[in-house]
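User: Predict the full complex structure for these chains.
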Amino acid sequence: MSSPPPLPTVVRRTALWFALAAGVPLSAQSPDATVARQQALRARADSLKQRIDSLAAAANETGLDTAVVVRGLRLRTGAALASDAAAALEDALTKAAAVVGEETDSLAPRLALTLRERRTSVRESYSPITGFSVQPTKERVTGYVFDGMYDGRDIPGASLAHPLSQSDLAKSMLWEFERAVARHLPVALGAWLASRVPLAAAPKDLNASVYRMLATDPAAVVRKCAAGDRAACRLGFALDSLPTNRIAAWYDQSDLPSLAANAGDGGQRSWMAQRTSRDEQSACIERAQLDVCRAMLSLLPADAFRIPMPAAARESLMRLTLSTGGPQAISRLRETRDSTVAGQLATAAGVPADTLIDRWVRQVIAARPSSPLPNATFALASLACIALCAAWAVRGKPWN
Amino acid sequence: MFRAVLNTQWKWSRPIVLLAVLVAGYIPISALRAMPYKSVDTYYIPSLYQGIIGASIHYQLLALAVAVVVAIASWQADAHRQHVYALSLPLPRWRFVLLRFGAGAALLGAVAVAVGLFGGIAAAIAPLPAMLHAYPVGLAVRFWLGALVPFAMIFALLASDPKRVRIIVAAIATIVAVDLLLASVGTTDKPLVLGWILDGVYAGSGPLAAFLNRWMLVDV
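Assistant: Here is the predicted structure of the two-chain assembly.
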C-alpha cells in the first residue's frame, strides 16, 4: 500500500505557526482541562452539525404530506397539488406506455418523484441609490421544484413556473421517465443517447431541423450523410465502433481549421494553445495551412473528437427505432447482448441496421425545409396588419 | 396622379432609397466573398451558413431603417407646409392618403427588387456547395412584406389626428406603467399587459414576427 503524498512545505509551515499560536494560551491550562475543553467543543460542533442536517431534512420534507401513486410510481407532494400531480402523472405514464409498452410497469416503481412549492417573500430594505424603501411582502408561491430518483440515485429535476400548468408538469414527469428508461439500457447505448430515450411526441419540425443541422455540420461525414450516403451515416453515428483515426474518418481537409479552433473542451484547447505558438495558431485557423492544423490536432487526445452526429439526429434515429420496433422494442433493447450500437438498434427495431438507416435518411431528406418564401399565414397576417394601418391612415386628419 | 405622387415621394426619399439599394448590393457580397479558406478552393459550409445568418440580420435592419425613413418622408414635407398642398388637390382625402401609401410601398418594393436582384447575382457567381441553395425571390418577398409592416404602422401614426395619437399613446403608456407597477409590488406575478402586447406583436403570426425569423439568401 502506498503512503499518502507529503504536504507542501508552505502548508506545513502555516500549520506549524497556527499550532504555535494556539498552543500559547492552551499551554497556560492544565493538560486535562485542555482535553476536556477540546472534547466539549467537538461535541458541540457535532451536535450543531446534526441539528443542521435534521433541520435541512425537515425543510426538505415540509409540504410533502401527500403521496400519489400511479402504476406503482410514487410521487410525494402537498395536498393542494395532489390532484394536478395525479392527472399529470397518469398522462405522462400513458404517453410512456404508448412507446415502451409493459416496461412502464416494471420501471415505474423504481422511480420516486417529489413536487414541492417554492415560496419566496420580499424583506423590507432601503435602497440608498433610489432613496426608496422596499416594502416587505408576504411569503407566496413563486414556482415549483420537481425532483426524481431512480433506484435511489438522483435524476436531474426541473423548475416549473407559477401558476402550475398541468401539461408542463406532465412534460417534466415524462422527461424524468425518459431518463429512467435510459438508465435501464446498456451503459454505452445510454451514453450514445445522451442519457435520455425520447418518449414524448416529436416536435413537428424535428426532422426538418435535423436536416438543417446535418447539412451545415462542421463534420464532413455528417454532411455526406445528409446527402444520402449510408456508409457516412453509419460512420457519423459511430454505429459500429469509434474509428481509430477519428479526424481522418470524420473530417475533410476544409474542416480542419475550424476543428483546430473548436475541438475538445476548454482544458484541452488551453493545453493545445500552450504547446503551439501564436504564429502556428494563426497559420492554421486564419490562413488554413493544413499541415499546421494536422500538427495542432495531433496534440489532442482521441476523446477530444466526440461522435459528430448531433444529439437531435441520434434522438431522431432512436424514435424511428422505437416506432419501427413497436412497444416491445425497449424490452429487446434491454435484453440484447450485441455490443455495437448498430446491433442494438437493429435488435430493437427488428430490421437490419442498414434498412433502419436507409429509412431514417429518406425520412430526414424528405423533411428538408422548402424555400424560405413567407408561408400563407404569415403573408395574410402581414397583409391584414398593413390593410388595417392603411384604413387607420385614411381616416386620419393630421391638420387638426 | 399616382405617378405625380410617386415622383414627389421619390424626390423626398431618393437619398435613403439609393443608399438602401447600395447596401442591398453590398450585403450578399460581404456575406459570400469571405467564406472560402485561402488554401482550399471550396466553401466551408458551417462558416458560410454563419455568414448568411449574419447577413439575415443586416437585411432586417435595412428593411426596418428604410421603412421608417420612407414613412417619415411621406408626410414630413406636408407637415412642414401645414398640409396646404394636400388639401388643395382636387381629389378626396382618402384617395390622396392611399396614393401616398401606394407610392411608399412602391419605393420599398424597388429596394426589395434590388435585394432579390443583387442576392441572385451574388449567389449565381459564388460556387455554392451542393447542399445549399440560393433563394433570392423568397428573400425579396420577405423583405418587402417585412418592411411594409413597420412602414404601414408609422405611416398610419403620422397620418392620424395628432390629438387622437397623443390620447392613444398616453393610454397605452399609462396601462403599461400600471401593469409594471402592479408586477413590481407583487400584485401580479409578471407584467401581464406588456406580455400580451409583446406576444401579440412578435409571437406566432404577429405583425412583427417576421423580424424573429431568419431572412436567408442561402439555405439548405
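Chain A touches chain B through 52 residues (CB under 8 Å).
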